[in-house]
Amino acid sequence: MHLIIGLGNPGPEYAKTRHNAGFLALDRLAQRHGIAITQSKFHALAGTGIIANQKVLLLKPQTFMNRSGLTVGEAKAFYKTPIDNLVVLVDELALPAGNIRLRAGGSSNGHNGLKDIKRVLATQAYPRLRIGIDDKGRANQADYVLSPFTDEQAALVDPALNRAADALETWLAHGIDKAMSLHNA
């Protein structure tokens, strides 16, 4: 079982915010493959299906961002999933809106969701796909990430969500190295 976890905050008030870029990317992948993310599992909304001949579990933690590790840890333990068979989709302030970056590991870069996953897994060596949301030097990052995309940003992020889904399909079919070489332009 491959685990694909999109990070975000639950509730309609956060649905279109920058911090929910992980949820948005997961939704795009699910739509492509007809996977409904409606089950309740591991403190998350979940959906199972087949993508690139791989069985996948798509997860949207419902614990708020800073407790995302709970979902990741429970699902990984239940399915005995190797660390290389999970990927976390997350917003990234340090990337311009419209950019994506897939990595086999790395730091949390100050992201509370990734910090909590590191705490639970006791490692930072797990794949993650970052979706750029800009920063532009704003003083209050919490207000910024919990606000909706501007129209200009939304126009850049929408095609990036398609590229994120492409990268995930490549990851499932050919592995992380091939996916990084093709999709980290």
How is this structure best described in words?
The structure is a single chain. This protein is an alpha/beta fold. Helices cover 38% and strands 22% of the residues. It has 6 helices and 7 strands, in the order E-H-E-E-E-H-E-E-H-E-H-H-H. A 7-stranded mixed beta sheet has the order 2-3-4-1-5-7-6, with helices on both faces. Strand 2 and strand 3 form a beta hairpin.
Keywords:
alpha/beta; 7 strands; 185 residues; 7-stranded mixed β-sheet
Class of secondary structure makeup: alpha/beta
The H/E string reads EHEEEHEEHEHHH
Characterize the main sheet.
7 strands, mixed
What is the CA–CA distance across the termini?
28 Å
The overall pLDDT, averaged over residues, is 94
Q: Please provide the count of β strands.
A: 7
**Major β-sheet strand ordering:** 2-3-4-1-5-7-6
Oligomer: single chain
The number of helical runs is: 6
- The portion of residues assigned to helices is 25-40%
Overall geometric form = globular
Strand content: 15-25%
Rounded radius of gyration (Å): 15 Å
Extract low-pLDDT stretches. none
Please outline the helices and strands.
Elements: E1 2-6, H1 21-32, E2 39-41, E3 44-51, E4 54-61, H2 68-79, E5 86-92, E6 100-103, H3 112-121, E7 128-132, H4 141-145, H5 151-174, H6 176-183
Parallel strand pairs: 1-4, 1-5, 5-7
Antiparallel strand pairs: 2-3, 3-4, 6-7
Helix pairs in contact: 1-5, 2-3, 5-6
Short summary of the structure?
The mean pLDDT is 94.
